[in-house]
Every structure is written in structure tokens, then in C-alpha cells.
Write a structure and sequence with these properties.
It contains twelve helices and no strands. The chain is an all-alpha fold and about 280 residues long.
């Protein structure tokens, strides 16, 4: 069932764009409400108390519906939860829109979109801009998709919701627990980043990636993003003398690499499910 849920969710996420239906405003309102009662507590305690009710609710619903219609309701519930926890924005739709605008008569519009979607400063020189763009795609793929799926595989819908809620709390929090959430997110990212980058080696330039992967495999939490970025760049088939093309082909090759990675990840999940 886990394989089926992930397969369907990835297909929908890859080929359909439904970002407008996926938002977490209710969680933000919930944070503002609960902050009135627990904001005087230590940040770690506040974060746990904030996350506990929604996680218990998701776990309880999953348990209740597990036997309905021979597991069909549980299957649908898992698909809905996983799809809702991915994103919140569609990575492929955003990247292709940025590339389309960058190659029109007014590339400034495309650069502005890249800044809005991925936080890349417009004033960066062209080569650095495209390298930052490629790295931002890898980071977005890890945070929006791979890590969510990883925790879904381990903990089911509760795991996916846990990762997404901590991710939101690390960006903004009415409870004042942002710093604690950032540390928690780094902990949750440590293992998924290393598995994700191993897939880069298997689906890209194995030797180049594996050298970096071995060097930083057991490094601390602060090396997560560096490992992801360096392994991602090393995996591409477009790097020449440390530079990447500035015509958009590097970004397209990045998306193609991610497609291969997610297909391989599905194969691995299928094998694990069969063995277990």
C-alpha cells in the first residue's frame, strides 16, 4: 500500500498543478490560537505541544479507517495526506515557468520569478545566478518532495505531516519557536539528504558524486545543504570547467536527473515493501 500511495502521489505531483488547493493557513491560525496558552513555555516544549494534537489526530484517523472497505479508505487517506504535505508549490511548474520567462524578450521577468520562487538575488552575475538556481532546485526537491516521502515511508501519514509542520514552523511561527524548529528540521533532513544524494550518484555521474558523498557522509547537521548542492552539481552531465550552461539546459538536466531519482526511489520502496 505504501508503494501505491507514493507512486500515485508522485505522478500527480509531477504531471498536475494543483498548488491553489494546497495551503496551510489553518495551521498558522492554530499556532496563533495555541500561542495564547503556551508561549510562556520553553520553545522546545511549545513546539512539541503545538505539533502533538494534529499528529495525534492524523494517527487516530489512519487507525480508525484502516479496516474500512478492505483498506481502500486508508489508501485514499494516505494519498490525500501525502499529496497535501508535498510542496506546497509544484517544483516542475515553477521551474518551467521561470525558464520560459528567462528566454523571452524580457528576461528580467524570469529573473524576478526565480527570486520570488527560489530566493535567488537578481543582481548576481549570470554564471553564479544559474548555479544558484540549479542548487535551489535540488534543495526544493529535497524539502518539498523527497524528505516528505522518506518520513511517510517510515512513519506513514504522521511522518509526512510531522515533517511539513516542522518545515512551516522553521520558516515562520507565531509561537516564537522558529530557531528550535530549524534545528529539528536539520535533524529530520540529515538522513534523507544522504539517501537523496546517494541516488544522485546512482542516477548521475557516480564517481564524481560518490567522492563528495563519502567525504561528507558523517558530517554534522550544518553540512546538509552543502552536501546536497555539491552532489547535485557533480551529478549533472552539463558541467564543464566548473561552469554550467547559461541557456537553461542545466536546469532542464536537473529536472531530468530528479525524474530518474524519483523513479529509482520508487523501485527501492517497492523492493523494501516486498522484503518487509
Amino acid at each position: 500500500m505504501t508503494f501505491i500511495i507514493i507512486c500515485i502521489a508522485l505522478i500527480v505531483e509531477r504531471f498536475f498543478h494543483w498548488t491553489d488547493l494546497r495551503h496551510w493557513r489553518r495551521f498558522m491560525q492554530y499556532e496563533q490560537w495555541i500561542a495564547r496558552y503556551i508561549n510562556h513555555l520553553p520553545s522546545s516544549v511549545s513546539l512539541i505541544l503545538c505539533l502533538l494534537p494534529p499528529l495525534l489526530l492524523v494517527g487516530m484517523i489512519e487507525h480508525v479507517v484502516s479496516g474500512w472497505l478492505y483498506g481502500a479508505v486508508k489508501l485514499i487517506f494516505g494519498i490525500v495526506v501525502l499529496l497535501y504535505c508535498l510542496g506546497p508549490n509544484n517544483l516542475w511548474a515553477q521551474v518551467y515557468r521561470c525558464l520560459s520567462e528567462l528566454h523571452k524578450d524580457d528576461p528580467a521577468t524570469g529573473a524576478k520569478l526565480v527570486e520570488t520562487y527560489f530566493g535567488i538575488p537578481i543582481e548576481e552575475e549570470s554564471q553564479l545566478f544559474h548555479q544558484l538556481f540549479v542548487k535551489a532546485i535540488f534543495l526544493a526537491a529535497q524539502e518539498r518532495i523527497f524528505s516528505v516521502i522518506f518520513w511517510f515511508v517510515l512513519l506513514g501519514p504522521v511522518g509526512a505531516v510531522l515533517y511539513r509542520l516542522i518545515g512551516f514552523s522553521s520558516e515562520q511561527s507565531a509561537l516564537g519557536v522558529r530557531d528550535t524548529a530549524v534545528k529539528a528540521k536539520k535533524i529530520l533532513d540529515w538522513l534523507p539528504v544522504r539517501i537523496f544524494t546517494l541516488f544522485f550518484a546512482l542516477c548521475g555521474h557516480f564517481k564524481n558524486v560518490f567522492i563528495i558523498w563519502k567525504k561528507y557522509l558523517f558530517k554534522g547537521l550544518n553540512e546538509n545543504i552543502f552536501l546536497l548542492n555539491e552532489c547535485g552539481i557533480a551529478a549533472l552531465d552539463v558541467v564543464e570547467n566548473g561552469c554550467i550552461p547559461e541557456d537553461g539546459s542545466a536546469e532542464k538536466e536537473t529536472l531530468e536527473l530528479l525524474d530518474r531519482v524519483f523513479v529509482m526511489a520508487l523501485v527501492v520502496v517497492a523492493v523494501v515493501v516486498l522484503i518487509v
